[in-house]
Amino acid sequence: MNDLRQLRHFVAVAEHGHFARAAAAVHLSQPALSRSIQALEAGLGCRLFDRGTRHVVLTAHGQLVLEHARRLLAGSRSLQNAVNQLGNLEAGELCLGAGPFPAARLVPRALARLARRYPKIHVQLVIEDWRSLRRRLLGEGIELFVAESRELLDDPLLAVEPLRPRPGLYFCRPGHPLLEVGRLSRDAIADYPLAGPQLPDEVVDQVRKLSGREQLPDIQCDNFMVLKDLVQHSDVLGLATSDVVAESVADGSLAVLPPVPDIPNRNSAYGLVSRAGHSLSPAAQALRALVLREDEELSA
After folding, report:
1. pLDDT of 219-243, one tens digit each?
2. What is the pTM of this model?
3. CA pseudo-torsion sign 59, 64, 67, 69
4. Angle at 225 between CA 128 and CA 193, to 5 degrees
5. With left for phi above 0 and alpha for psi between -120 and 50, is residue 212 left, alpha or beta?
6. 168-256 adopts what CATH topology?
7. Burial label, 223 (beta-carbon count in 10 A; 0-12, 13-18, 19+)
8. What is the pLDDT of the chain when averaged over all its residues?
9. Alpha-helical segments (H) within 27-155
10. Rounded to an integer, what distance in angstroms lies between the CA atom of residue 131 and that of residue 148?
11. Are residues 178 and 184 in contact, defined by beta-carbon separation less than 8 angstroms?
């Protein structure tokens, strides 16, 4: 059985594409790293790298081993993390993900509560769309995530805990020309670019039929702070859920457009997502409880 240390050395070489740089990264001499890789290749009975004068390239066997090595190393970290946390949330780490809108308000507030209770937990937060977060979750790069979940509900590999829906809306800068229009229409909205994160397919299809746009949104970005700044300094319209713009609307830095009769404002479908059949670490369980509490309070 090849030990995890050899797998760590192998992953370092694969990621750096160079023995010298990988050796520096894992704090080994280059000859020692080479011997570790050779021992791994001997144990597996295959060549993992094609070695060139300037860099190394994974073989087909190497590609396969890399996929499994990353999964094994992630599992090892998860095991150690769970053991460290058992009955003691003063140690360990939590790797989680969030979609653009939950990351703008719900998740930071839950994390703030977690940090106040357990200030020594190391937290890594990844902000991406729900499809990318699913890949990370199944690859054991994160333990759970909060994101759009309507396309994940029937996935047998996932456990999805739906959160309360938030109304979807269009937002704009104060003084936007559309705020002066008495009754908004589909044609009026279509005159301005629409910015937002990646949208679920059913939402895209419905809005496309009603708006006549081929691609939605016109400007796609998964960073809500960037979207907010873009909308505040242009006539671009933003697409969001009510919770993430509430404070900005209250302080007057953003405005909300009234509903458009022929373009429905769809509700969000946030969910807490983890791997089916896998128990959460104590830190992840604590965060889950805080997300549910924050979700209830924000909805109220």
Report:
1. 999 899 999 999 999 999 998 999 8
2. 0.69
3. negative
4. 90
5. left
6. D-Maltodextrin-Binding Protein; domain 2 (3.40.190)
7. middle
8. 86
9. 30-44, 60-85, 106-117, 130-138
10. 9
11. yes
Q: How many Cβ atoms sit within 10 Å of the Cβ of residue 197?
A: 23
Compute how many other C-beta atoms are within 10 angstroms of the C-beta atom of residue 72: 16
Decide: 2 and 44 in contact? Cβ < 8 Å: yes
Q: Is the Cβ–Cβ distance between 152 and 268 less than 8 Å?
A: no
Structure-block tokens of residue 255? 């405005």
Nearby residues of 257 by Cβ (< 8 Å), 6 or more positions away:
169, 170, 171, 172, 176, 178, 179, 184, 237
> Per-residue pLDDT averaged across 3-13, rounded?
89
3-class SS of residue 162:
strand
**pLDDT tens digit sequence for 125-162:** 999 999 999 999 988 889 999 999 999 999 999 999 99
Place of tokens 């011997």: 35
* CATH H superfamily, domain 86-165+269-299: Periplasmic binding protein-like II (3.40.190.10)
CA 207 vs. chain centroid, Å, equals: 24
How far apart CA 155 and CA 292 sit, in angstroms, is 22
